[in-house]
Amino acid sequence: MDLSKIETLIEFVGRSSITELTVTEKDTTVRIFRERSANALSSTAESVAAVEQPAQATVPEDKPSTGGFAVNAPIFGVLHIAPAPNDPPFVAVGDEVVEGQTLFIIEAMKVFNKIAAPRAGRITRLTDVNGAEVEAGDMLAEIA
Hints:
With 144 residues, the chain is α+β, with helices and mostly antiparallel strands. The chain has helices at 3-15, 43-52; strands spanning 20-25, 28-33, 55-56, 69-72, 77-80, 96-97, 102-108, 111-116, 121-126, 133-134, 139-143.
């Protein structure tokens, strides 16, 4: 497991209500934990708050070769392109989106993080990953 993945895990634990995380990749196991403060909210309330607040996708300063802005995964987890298994996807290539519109959901540690459009525009490219793991920084979509 490389250092950037470990740093991402530490940031994830710091931003979430998780008090302990153990991840094994190949022959390496990383365990990250923190003490919960006395005035912390209940885990149920924290989980609901995490679902309601969309995670902002990152927008790189450099434009990709097609002239659009890349929407990258802000965290690692399982990518979902639709709100439920039999529902249509949030967006498709060619769709016009507004800033803040939900594009995807990334499930990480049983918390569903909405990935919002960082800007308005038209979807020019989408990932073909659905129901599989994505890493922080993976390109999910492109908005022109």
